[in-house]
Amino acid sequence: xxxxxxxxxxxxxxxxxxxxxxxxxxxxxxxxxxxxxxxxxxxxxxxxxxxxxxxxxxxxxxxxxxxxxxxxxxxxxxxxxxxxxxxxxxxxxxxxxxxxxxxxxxxxxxxxxxxxxxxxxxxxxxxxxxxxxxxxxxxxxxxxxxxxxxxxxxxxxxxxxxxxxxxxxxxxxxxxxxxxxxxxxxxxxxxxxxxxxxxxxxxxxxxxxxxxxxxxxxxxxxxxxxxxxxxxxxxxxxxxxxxxxxxxxxxxxxxxxxxxxxxxxxxxxxxxxxxxxxxxxxxxxxxxxxxxxxxxxxxxxxxxxxxxxxxxxxxxxxxxxxxxxxxxxxxxxxxxxxxxxxxxxxxxxxxxxxxxxxxxxxxxxxxxxxxxxxxxxxxxxxxxxxxxxxxxxxxxxxxxxxxxxxxxxxxxxx
Length: 414
What we know:
This protein is an alpha+beta fold. The protein has a single domain, classed as CATH 1.10.630.10. The chain has 15 helices and 14 strands. It has helices at 30-39, 63-70, 91-95, 105-114, 119-123, 126-138, 148-165, 172-183, 195-219, 225-231, 241-272, 274-282, 287-297, 329-332, 367-384, and strands at 42-45, 57-60, 76-77, 145-147, 233-234, 237-238, 303-308, 312-314, 317-319, 324-328, 389-390, 395-396, 405-407, 409-411. A 5-stranded mixed beta sheet has the order 1-2-10-7-3. β5 and β6 (237-238) form a beta hairpin. α13 (287-297) crosses α15 (367-384). Residues 1-5 have low confidence and may be disordered.
């Protein structure tokens, strides 16, 4: 297939604002992305309708281009911001996360955690994670309906990441609520007070609460992930309190949102495609393949941003130094040049995908944990509730970053 190249000034879809809220009310705008992949794979948006103070940005929609940008951190930096809006989550908080850094500091901080997140290390947690999952589902005994987002996915993932961080189970929900407001800052339900009040009123208590935990770890070191942050040494220097807070928020956000997002979209897809669900009911060994297909079709984060460090060309388009470049994973994961019939949900496909990034320095640290959680959640749900059906209309978080369902009402036994 000959690739179409559309420099922005000649692009027939030039006026499209990819990140405008109107396109995201019902989740990622797949038809829009399909059009961009066909007509203008690297596309310039002049701005963001709901954030007029933000500059325009480039959208990268094809898998090969996302892969290329992801592996060239010297040209496409993560250190300015990882979001296309510079007026969302406070930029200084983002810059304190290793996901918002470039090498060498990024590599040194990420390396602190890698040993704990290897597949072999994560496999040792399978029993504990299954127990958490079964415990939450045991709480549904006698129920006819529930919301899979708030009553199954959220408590499971919050307890899993809470156990890694050494948190009291009683703090799972308060921390999850805070993280949901932070990542869903554009959603009126998750953040009814608005962004400015979120920053002014909610972040300071989060910071103080985290510092209380930090003080406790300094006095009583443990082997949890928060202690790793507290006692980390980078070239002889320890992390500042702000850097510890940023690292804590990053790990909590990744642990809370990624698995919750993909699990709930997986279950929705299985309910909407009963033939695919029946394949899993008949053969649970297909669950890992189904998980990979779900990760392809329903990546938890819609984009990460890079910033050009120099003038360059991508897809025939002139990228200027300082330009924002958005890597759109819901698009690259449905690239017709990579996947046959990419909008079809096929639990036997077992595809490669870019849900965890597209290689390079920022490939997701928690891939093994996410895959294990997803496998156990899907297995236990299929075994306990094989006849589960939708009990109402699902709703999406209104966000161009956090790509997930806000509610998924289900009838547990059909």
